[in-house]
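Retro notes (design track)

What went well: tokenization of the new backbones is finally stable.
What didn't: we kept losing track of which sequence belonged to which structure.
Fix going forward: every design gets posted as structure first, then sequence, in one message. First example under the new rule, 611 residues:
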């Protein structure tokens, strides 16, 4: 089975009829995948190699003498570095936009959440008794400076409970500047530098922390300052949100700097008029992946799907443009688009796609460029190939928008419910789709089992989109929940599965669990909470998993990371880390068993807390 999603099944069949190759087909063609790669024991870090380590003989070494332990640890650290870099560069772009906004260079942006601006500025020691623009300018400069700091630590570390900070201090892994930590990973993993797998992995954790409590948290906070802090909002999810009689534009990628402007441009009277002139009834903007989550959370813009929906959206034959920026955009979409009429428009100098139309996005002329892009989509409406049009009917209602601020006044009620035992604990389900897993199966199945067992589920990223499509982000989904969780959710009028945003918004979950820990005067690792990335595939997910564990959260991975080639690294990650940071990884691809691991962990933590 390739997917549990009916709309996806419909379009996978259509793609076959149309002779279009999809990610699942390409995965099949890759079989058998390289065993050395799967185990993490190939090294290309210098030109004496590439080297491969015999996974069975226990003595095999690379040309330089690196063992399986060193190679696996180095490779994993580089995955963390790439993932942390992606999140943090996104964060940096947000801060640069805030600075340009404050300096009057990016006139189409404004400060929307002034209260949050002042709150964050106070944390950074910026004087808040001035105009928003002055505060924003100094805050942005402070944060930009922080990216590279050599000495001292990133500010948001202060949001962690004291006990957690003590753990990090003792291990020497309190994160410094984000750029500093990432550069150090690249240095340490160069030939002949750090050859101690424990030392390497500790630095991997430090770098991941600079992502979770740094780059990602900055991305979230600045997005809220610029575009507003999300509040509960109704919308719909799945490919049925596409409309045959309107110009369909999908924004795909990650940074709301672009997608917010596209949404705004699509409201322009002249462009709507132009759409009508070409025979469409209007302009339908839909989201995909995490930039879709950003628009959904703040504007209630419908979300067409998660990672494995990106090719399928084109197969409907009605997507007039997919506008992309950075991250999670398959190079394949330009190939798929050749069979239909869809225009792929790339916008970032960091991410160009051969065969796509490149219209570079610049914050100084944001709305003007956004309008130009939307116009291209409208002009492409007439090129639809009528015989290839088929839109699946599936689209599900949902409620999203559960930022930390929305949940803050519910924390006491949550703690009471946890103490009473009505709610057993909280589980975060996050991360991607991966064609190695039937699309959405693990996300949805795990969420269903967890809520049945009275565990409140919080979600971000493609996991949240999977559960949205399955109808779990609705208050009515309490029918699938256990009695206690149902009572709790009904008393607050919330769904049992809460959409907390995009992948960088996992930082909202960190803040939530940190506040719960502070209120109970315990460490995060003492709480009845857990996390899972049931269908993860990206390097960003590796960084997320690493900072979740380093923050004290037991984390279950649903696809196997490339570490099994080293028994020592595997043991460190899945056993020994518990003694070091109070949490560890588990790997379990069966969703029933993975959910069971989380339930057992939560019950164990309740017992230790005496509740
Ligand atoms: O940003 S969009 S595929 S990497 S989960 Fe995964 Fe989905 Fe990408 Fe995180 Ni979000």
């Amino acid at each position: 089975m390739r997917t549990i999603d009916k709309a996806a099944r419909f379009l996978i069949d259509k793609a076959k009829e149309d002779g279009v190759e999809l990610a699942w087909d390409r995965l099949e063609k890759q079989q058998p995948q390289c065993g050395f790669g799967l185990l993490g024991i190939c090294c290309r870090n210098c030109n004496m190699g590439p080297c491969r380590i015999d996974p069975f003989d226990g003595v095999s070494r690379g040309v330089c003498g690196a063992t399986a332990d060193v190679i696996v640890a180095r490779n994993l650290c580089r995955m963390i570095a790439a993932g942390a870099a992606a999140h943090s560069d996104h964060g940096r772009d947000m801060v640069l936009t805030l600075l340009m906004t404050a300096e009057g260079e990016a006139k189409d942006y404004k400060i929307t959440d002034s209260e949050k601006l002042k709150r964050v500025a106070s944390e950074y020691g910026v004087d808040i008794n001035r105009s928003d623009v002055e505060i924003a300018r100094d805050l942005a400069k402070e944060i930009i400076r922080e990216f590279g700091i050599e000495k001292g630590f990133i500010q948001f570390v202060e949001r962690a409970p004291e006990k957690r900070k003590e753990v990090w201090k003792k291990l020497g892994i309190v994160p410094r500047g984000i750029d500093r930590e990432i550069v150090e990973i690249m240095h340490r993993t160069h030939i002949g530098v750090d050859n101690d797998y424990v030392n390497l992995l500790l630095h991997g954790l430090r770098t991941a922390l600079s992502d979770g409590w740094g780059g990602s948290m900055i991305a979230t906070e600045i997005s809220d300052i610029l575009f507003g802090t999300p509040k509960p909002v109704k919308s719909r999810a799945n490919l049925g949100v596409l409309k045959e009689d309107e110009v369909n534009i999908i924004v795909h990628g990650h940074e709301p700097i672009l997608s917010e402007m596209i949404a705004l441009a699509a409201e322009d009277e002249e462009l709507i008029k132009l759409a009508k002139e070409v025979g469409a009834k209007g302009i339908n903007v839909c989201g995909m992946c995490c930039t879709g989550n950003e628009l959904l959370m703040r504007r209630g813009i419908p979300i067409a799907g998660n990672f494995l929906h990106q090719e399928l959206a084109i197969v409907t034959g009605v997507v007039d443009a997919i506008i992309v920026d950075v991250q999670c955009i398959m190079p394949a979409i330009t190939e798929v688009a050749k069979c239909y009429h869809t225009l792929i428009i790339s916008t970032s100098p960091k991410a160009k796609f051969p065969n796509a139309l490149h219209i570079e996005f610049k914050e100084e002329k944001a709305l003007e460029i956004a309008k130009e892009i939307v116009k291209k989509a409208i002009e492409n409406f007439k090129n639809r190939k009528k015989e290839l049009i088929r839109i699946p009917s599936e689209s599900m209602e949902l409620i999203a928008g559960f930022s930390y601020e929305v949940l803050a006044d519910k924390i006491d009620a949550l703690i009471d419910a946890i103490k009473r035992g009505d709610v057993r604990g909280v589980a975060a389900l996050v991360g991607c789709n991966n064609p190695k897993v039937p699309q959405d199966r693990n996300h949805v199945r795990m969420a269903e089992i967890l809520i049945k067992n009275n565990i409140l589920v919080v979600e971000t990223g493609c996991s949240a989109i999977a559960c949205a499509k399955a109808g779990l982000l609705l208050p009515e989904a309490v029918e699938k929940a256990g009695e206690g969780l149902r009572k709790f959710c009904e008393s607050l009028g919330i769904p049992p599965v809460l959409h907390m945003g995009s992948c960088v918004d996992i930082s909202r979950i960190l803040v939530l669990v940190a506040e719960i820990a502070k209120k109970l005067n315990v460490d995060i690792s003492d709480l009845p909470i857990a996390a899972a990335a049931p269908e993860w595939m990206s390097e960003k997910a590796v960084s997320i998993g690493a900072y979740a564990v380093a923050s004290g959260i037991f984390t279950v991975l649903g696809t196997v990371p490339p570490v099994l080639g080293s028994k020592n690294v595997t043991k460190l990650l899945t056993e020994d880390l518990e003694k070091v940071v109070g949490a560890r990884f588990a790997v379990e691809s069966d969703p029933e068993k993975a959910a069971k691991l989380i339930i057992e962990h939560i019950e164990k933590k309740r017992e230790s807390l005496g509740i």
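Added context from the reviewer: The pocket of FE(4)-NI(1)-S(5) CLUSTER with Oxygen is lined by residues 254, 289-290, 306-307, 328, 431-432, 461-462, 502-503, 538, 540-541 (CB under 6 Å).
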